[in-house]
Design a protein that fits this description.
Number of helices: 17
Helix content: 40-55%
Strand content: 5-15%
Low-confidence stretches: 1-9, 19-55
Order of helices and strands: HHEHEHEHEHEEEEHHHHHHHHHHH
Structural class: alpha/beta
Number of strands: 8
Largest sheet: 6 strands, parallel
Mean pLDDT: 89
Radius of gyration: 28 Å
Length: 495
């Protein structure tokens, strides 16, 4: 008969003894400290092999190191009907005494401006008004606005208007803070020097009167650099407004065509930021956090804002365009624009926006009937959306699941759709949405572009590195990239 073994729990002394034996009899291979040949106990002369191994080490290329972090930055936002009337108190709370109000010739007649002026007057705050902002700003109109602001020496800015007004106010604020800077110093590379904004700017309060750009929450300002025949801009977190006052009452005056064009910008902000490359696939990793770009790639926080905004836009934009008395839809579109601004303001946009800049700046003469301006204009949202069906067919292979989720937001039943069909399904869903919205150009041909204009549009897209670097599937080799952009623009001539 075999006596069963009895397991006795080891005492503390036994555990210590066993540990010492383990170290003694397995050292050096298993001891994590002492098995390291470079540990300070190993005083050996380096061998020839070690020297050779050291010299053959693969050098690290900083330009190929991938990002490992993302940052979230957005303006403070106040949302609610009637909130414009609080703006005078806001400036008083900030201690502002000399405010430069930025607007345009159309908005200056609206109730939003009336309330802003009354609010500042009631609080005894001195102000001046610049109302010559150009819709779709050019570098010349921006410089004119900067020249107005500098001698006034304000201690705060107030922007009342659409994205063009808010972007112009951001640039007035920037160059007032850097009075000796050359205009191209801060402009996005490679068209400018891409200098970071390394100090805080003056307080800027933005009161949007359109529901589109989300500029009230971003650190981005866009304009047309005429000499290069391309739109570009300046992007840095320090440009973002201190406060965005989103008052749905201010968007009720938008004509239906402006609702549509502005809403298409929201649509593409959402789609592009949702499908941009992941932040941790972006290169190069910044050597200093001040150089981390505002547009970083899709990340877990921006995803929440982008997808919610896409769903809201699909639901409410057709209603806002169709019925000028549908105040719920108008309010929800203003909220969607702001949410999309937070999403793309941190994740970024890509191909639709990259190609939209030369489309707008190389306008062959198209004048949108919904905009009361004295010059040809392709509204920003229109120039962005016109390539969207082709773009998302192209990008889908990068992440079919995300593209199918976007198609589902348009009401597509994706339960039996194959992943390799994601691009076709989403592209068709976007084209159908645009068609049902009504009065939208069905491609570049409806804007006046011809096949012979494609090369110029390609050349105008190439400098948009800030957004192209976030484009899924786009080749990094120049000639291949040109070919891909050319095919996308050719496919966008009509659909």
């Amino acid at each position: 008969m075999v006596t069963p073994a009895i397991r006795v729990a080891p005492s503390a002394a036994n555990r210590a003894l066993n540990l010492l034996r383990t170290v003694q009899y397995t050292h050096p291979p298993n001891c994590p400290c002492h098995s390291n040949p470079n540990h300070h106990h190993h005083h050996k002369t380096p061998s020839m092999m070690n020297n050779v191994r050291r010299h053959l080490a693969t050098p690290v290329d900083p330009s190929r190191e991938k990002e490992y972090a993302f940052e979230m930055a957005a303006s403070s936002i106040r949302f609610g009907p009637g909130s414009t009337k609080e703006v005078g108190m806001d400036f008083k709370n900030m201690g502002a005494k000399r405010v430069c109000i930025v607007t345009d010739s159309n908005v200056t007649k609206l109730d939003a401006m009336k309330q802003a002026v009354e609010g500042l007057t009631k609080e005894g705050i001195e102000f001046t008004i610049y109302d010559k902002t150009r819709t779709e700003p050019k570098d010349s109109s921006v410089k004119e606005a900067i020249d107005f602001a500098k001698p006034y020496k304000p201690d705060a800015f107030l922007a009342v208007g659409g994205g063009s007004v808010i972007d112009t106010a951001k640039l007035m604020n920037l160059y007032t803070a850097y009075p000796e800077a050359d205009f191209l110093d801060f402009v996005n590379a490679p068209l400018g020097k891409g200098r970071p904004v390394d100090k805080p700017l003056l307080p800027l309060v933005a009161v949007p009167t359109t529901a589109g750009t989300g500029s009230e929450t971003t650190g981005t300002a866009i304009f047309d650099l005429v000499s290069k025949k391309a739109k570009t801009g300046i992007a840095h977190r320090n440009l973002k407004p201190t406060l965005g006052i989103c008052d749905p009452l201010n968007t009720r005056t938008m004509p239906s065509a402006v609702h549509a064009a502005s809403g298409l910008d929201v649509l593409c902000h959402s789609l592009e930021s949702w499908t941009a490359i992941p932040y941790n696939e972006r290169t190069p990793r910044p050597t200093n956090p001040i150089n981390r770009p505002a547009y970083q790639g899709a990340n877990p926080i921006s995803d929440i804002f982008s997808l919610h905004s896409l769903r809201s836009t699909v639901k409410y934009l057709p209603r806002a365009v169709r019925d000028p008395e549908d105040h719920e839809a108008q309010s929800q579109m203003l909220l969607a624009a702001t949410l999309a601004g937070i999403g793309f303001g941190n994740a970024g946009v890509h191909l639709c926006h990259g190609m939209s800049y030369p489309i707008s700046s190389q306008n062959p003469g198209y004048k949108h009937t919904g905009y009361a301006v004295d010059h040809p204009i392709i509204p920003h949202g229109v120039s962005v959306a016109v390539t969207a069906p082709a773009v998302f067919k192209f990008t889908a292979a990068s992440n079919p699941d995300r593209h199918l989720a976007a198609a589902e937001a348009f009401g597509v039943d994706i339960s039996n759709v194959k992943r390799e069909s994601a691009g076709e399904v989403l592209g068709n869903a976007i084209a159908e949405f645009l068609a049902k919205l009504g009065d939208q150009p069905r491609g570049l041909k409806d804007l006046g572009f011809k096949a012979s204009d494609i090369d110029g549009l390609v050349e105008g897209t190439l400098p948009q590195r800030r957004v192209l670097m976030l484009a899924p599937n786009l080749s990094e080799e120049l000639q291949a990239e040109k070919g891909e952009l050319r095919r996308l623009l050719e496919e966008s001539l009509d659909y």
